[in-house]
Design a protein that fits this description.
Layout lengths: L8 E7 L12 E7 L3 E6 L6 E6 L5 E6 L3 E6 L7 E7 L16 E3 L5 E6 L2 E6 L7 E5 L5 E6 L5 E6 L9 E6 L9 E5 L4 E6 L5 E6 L2 E2 L9 E2 L4 E7 L4 E8 L8 E7 L2 E6 L4 E6 L6 E5 L4 H6 L1 H14 L6 H11 L7 E6 L5 E6 L4 E6 L5 E6 L2 E3 L7 E3 L9 E8 L1
Antiparallel strand pairs: 1-2, 1-32, 2-3, 4-5, 5-6, 6-7, 8-9, 9-10, 10-11, 12-13, 13-14, 14-15, 16-17, 17-20, 18-19, 20-21, 22-23, 23-24, 24-25, 26-27, 27-28, 28-29, 30-31
């Protein structure tokens, strides 16, 4: 039953296509409206590697972060269209020798016209009408800046690091916007693990950086696989750029390959792309946790054979199966012996009542009550079938390939 007086919000999710690796696919966006339970999908040509959606404060515009070195500005006022209103190559601003060095995450100012983004070696301030001439705010001092999050005062920016092609990053940076340029603004913090994703407390200058563990052969960080190892979450005092607390778990704890992370009601919510879970951690004691298992029904897991075959091909293309059994074994340990990705999208609704999740591998959205983890709604998304030179077509979800759900954001309506 749909209660029209219920909390109203829109959930947006980047779509990266049919591949096992979310870094090599196409570019699209999904919108899910609650409580109407309506879904809208749009794909874009000439752009690849969709990764993250950054929403303007009023929800009218979106920046579709991607790995194709482009700024993509969307008009989100009409859910049926979600049209591109501006595109700008970041190669005009700084050249790029590595295809994963791209502006994947952005931060909007309250005016709905200005935003921050990382391009190459620096942090830039952009205006939507002058994308070709941003203001250089200074070097971030990382190899490959990834997720950006800032504190409520918009002074400190916490930055994750993908690292270069041939080394682990194992560090984050705190960028202090109050220091005048060209004075040093970025403080690098060394860590015992590589951090791709991070978040900041909504009320305090405190950030959280989560390790993203993967294994390689001969320091090849392009063809990597999940690592079955201990994970960390570092609490960072942004004002001093120091680690204040550490949370860690054994390799058996299902929190591998994190994606969306955020804080709500003094609890940290972590989407686990490898483990098919959302993990909730109490920030008061930085100890107690709850694990929401987000596995779909058995019938969906059985009949998703096309995506299972696609994933097997993708894995075989990355690793020789006869000589890399240790990598395959680690991957199966991470996924719980499954051949599918897990939860890459997980956001708490603006009012805090619901938790919305997106299972990338099984192509499925679900809405849970945040406090009880009781499932309120689930939807198998249309599967994607591409036609050469034509828009993708969509069929019943379990009969084809997944849309490739990745990072998500949510906005009230």
């Amino acid at each position: 039953m749909i209660l029209m007086d219920d909390e109203r919000f829109s959930f947006y999710c980047a779509l990266d296509g049919v591949h096992l690796d979310g870094l090599i696919g196409s570019c699209g966006i999904l919108r899910f409206d609650w409580p109407e339970r309506k879904t809208f999908i749009q794909h874009y040509f000439g752009i690849s590697g969709a990764h993250n959606v950054s929403l303007s404060p009023d929800g009218s515009l979106g920046l579709l972060g991607n790995f194709s070195q482009q700024i993509v500005l969307l008009d989100l006022r009409r859910a049926e269209k979600m049209q591109i209103v501006a595109r700008q190559s970041t190669m005009h601003i700084e050249e790029c020798p590595y295809r994963l060095r791209a502006n994947t995450h952005h931060l909007w100012y309250p005016d709905n016209e200005t935003f921050l983004g990382a391009v190459g070696d620096n942090i830039y301030r952009f205006h939507i009408d002058q994308l070709r001439q941003p203001e250089n705010l200074g070097p971030h001092r990382l190899e490959n800046a990834h997720e950006l999050r800032w504190d409520p005062t918009r002074r400190y920016v916490l930055i994750g690091d993908l690292g270069p092609e041939d080394a682990a990053a194992r560090r984050v940076a705190v960028f202090d916007l109050s220091h005048p340029y060209p004075a040093k603004r970025s403080t690098v913090i060394s860590l015992p693990g590589t951090v791709w994703h991070c978040c900041v407390h909504p009320d305090k200058p405190v950030g959280y950086a989560l390790t993203y563990s993967f294994s390689t052969e001969q320091e090849n960080y392009v063809d990597w696989a999940p690592a079955y190892t201990r994970e960390y979450i570092f609490e960072i005092d942004l004002s001093t750029a120091k680690i204040s607390r550490v949370w860690s778990c054994g390799s058996e704890f299902p929190i591998h390959l994190n994606s969306d992370v955020g804080v709500s009601h003094d609890r940290l919510y972590v989407a686990s792309g490898g483990s098919h879970t959302v993990v909730e951690i109490d920030l008061d004691n930085f100890d107690e946790s709850r694990v929401l298992n987000c596995m779909p029904p058995l019938w969906l897991r059985i009949f998703a054979w096309r995506q299972r075959w696609m994933n097997l091909k993708g894995a075989a293309a990355r690793r020789a199966t006869l000589t890399n059994t240790h990598v395959i074994a680690q991957t199966l340990q991470v996924t719980g012996n499954r051949m599918f990705d897990g939860i890459y999208a997980a956001r708490v609704s603006p009012g805090g009542k619901y938790l919305v999740t997106g299972n990338r591998g099984y192509n499925r959205l679900a809405v849970y009550e945040r406090e009880t983890f009781k499932k309120r709604y689930t939807k198998v998304l249309p599967s994607r079938r591409d036609r050469y030179r034509n828009q993708p077509t969509y069929k019943l979800g379990w009969r084809g390939h997944h849309l490739g759900l990745h990072h998500a954001e949510v906005t009230p309506r």
